[in-house]
């Protein structure tokens, strides 16, 4: 006996056809039975699956928050880079102006040094003639002019120091505006693993991030040298002012000594003071020349640094666009998986609903009179099929013999 079962869900229809090849077949007939759908089973525990989907959704949301923070940080970094570029431009301009004015400072200092040497040579004469004494009357005015020149030199250095300090302050503020944040890219790379475009964008982001950190480190290493320039200007300005004050004092003392008996003694003291002043001023001039050479080298070298800062700023602007795209992708991903646990539960419910026939009211599709169909819709049975039996053999009718045949048969001669 063979049983063939076909399951048709409630509300569905089907056409079923069976065929067979037999030989000498005999059986009790076909029996067709239609039973109401019954498939009792329990849905496995889906809580762990839903919990994992919740964890996934939370992780993606956390990644999206991280990407948004990264985008905000890069945007802040971009603003800081723009401020850095502006501050660096001011600083470079200040260095260039300082370099241009340094030549004038050195030239003015050389003129003052030459004048001091001439005055010292004139005062070194032991015997003054009448013309020499007349020239002495002009010496206080010359000293006062030299002091005024030194005052102008000091004022110029004050202006340079102020401009350099402002530029340095702007540069320092721009550097400080770069967020001092350490980013570990490993988690970000892990989160976007397999997404080639995002991986390339993140790689570019991290390169510019490294460049920005490099600018911070370089500035921290040379900040002392930048500050030293300003301090050197202040010290040289102070020295110039002190020399100018000494010259003014000499001029005043010489004016008071002219026409007195002690004029020669005063001149000897003045000559000695000027000799010492020449020595001190020569040291100052040498320091000023070395300072201006350093400023020139700094101004020339800083242009390359400023160009690099500009490139970093442009790169960070591009990086900000990439970070924004990353954040947008994170938000889209979050939106796509945020309701994933709910959708899984709804999908499982819908799937199980296809097998839920609790509300199905069966009715007979054979006859309306058949109302007891909760257990069996119908049962149909065909007549049995038996094998064909061999037919009974009837003896053939006796052969009619003639006289001659009968005679032969009698003697056993008939075939």
Structure classification = mainly alpha
User: Strands across the major sheet, in which order?
Assistant: 1-2
| Strand/helix succession | EHHHHHHHEH
The count of domains is 2
Instruction: Give the N-terminus to C-terminus distance in angstroms.
Output: 56 Å
Nearest-integer average pLDDT: 73
Number of helices: 8
Helical content band: 55-70%
Rg value:
57 Å
Beta strands, count? 2
Tell me about the largest β-sheet: 2 strands, antiparallel
**Contiguous uncertain segments of 5+ residues:** none
Using the alpha-carbon principal axes, give the shape. Answer: rod-shaped
Tell me the quaternary state. single chain
**In percent terms, what proportion of residues is strand?**
under 5%
């Amino acid at each position: 006996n063979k049983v063939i079962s076909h399951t048709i869900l409630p509300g569905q229809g089907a056409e079923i056809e069976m065929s067979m090849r037999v030989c000498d077949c005999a059986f009790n007939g076909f029996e067709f039975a239609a039973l109401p759908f019954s498939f009792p089973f329990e849905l496995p525990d889906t809580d762990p699956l839903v919990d994992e989907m919740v964890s996934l959704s939370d992780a993606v949301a956390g990644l999206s928050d991280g990407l948004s923070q990264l985008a905000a940080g890069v945007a802040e970094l971009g603003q800081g880079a723009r401020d850095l570029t502006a501050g660096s431009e001011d600083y470079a301009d200040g260095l260039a102006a300082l370099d241009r004015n340094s030549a004038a400072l050195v030239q003015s200092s050389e003129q003052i040094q030459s004048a001091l040497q001439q005055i010292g040579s004139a005062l070194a004469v032991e015997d003054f003639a009448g013309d020499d004494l007349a020239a002495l009357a002009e010496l206080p005015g010359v000293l006062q002019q030299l002091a005024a020149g030194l005052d102008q030199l000091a004022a110029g250095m004050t202006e340079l120091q102020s401009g350099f300090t402002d530029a340095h302050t702007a540069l320092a503020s721009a550097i400080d505006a770069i967020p001092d944040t350490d980013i570990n890219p490993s988690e970000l790379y892990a989160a976007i693993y397999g997404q080639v475009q995002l991986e390339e964008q993140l790689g570019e982001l991290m390169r510019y991030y490294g460049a920005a950190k490099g600018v911070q480190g370089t500035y921290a290493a040379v900040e002392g040298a930048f500050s030293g320039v300003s301090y050197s200007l202040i010290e040289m300005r102070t020295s110039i002012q002190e020399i100018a004050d000494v010259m003014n004092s000499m001029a005043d003392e010489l004016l008071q000594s002219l026409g007195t008996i002690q004029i020669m003694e005063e001149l000897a003291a003045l000559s000695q003071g000027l000799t010492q002043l020449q020595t001190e001023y020569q040291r100052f001039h040498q320091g000023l020349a070395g300072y201006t050479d350093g400023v020139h080298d700094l101004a020339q070298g800083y242009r390359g640094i400023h160009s690099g800062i500009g490139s970093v700023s442009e790169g960070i602007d591009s990086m900000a666009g990439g970070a924004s795209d990353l954040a947008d992708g994170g938000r889209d991903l979050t939106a796509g998986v945020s309701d994933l646990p709910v959708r899984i539960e709804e999908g499982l419910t819908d799937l199980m609903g296809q097998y839920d026939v609790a509300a199905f009211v069966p009715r007979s599709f054979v006859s309306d009179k058949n109302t007891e169909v909760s257990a069996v819709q119908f049962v149909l049975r065909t007549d049995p099929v038996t094998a064909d039996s061999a037919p009974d053999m009837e003896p053939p009718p006796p052969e009619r013999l003639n006289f001659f045949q009968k005679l032969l048969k009698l003697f056993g001669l008939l075939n």
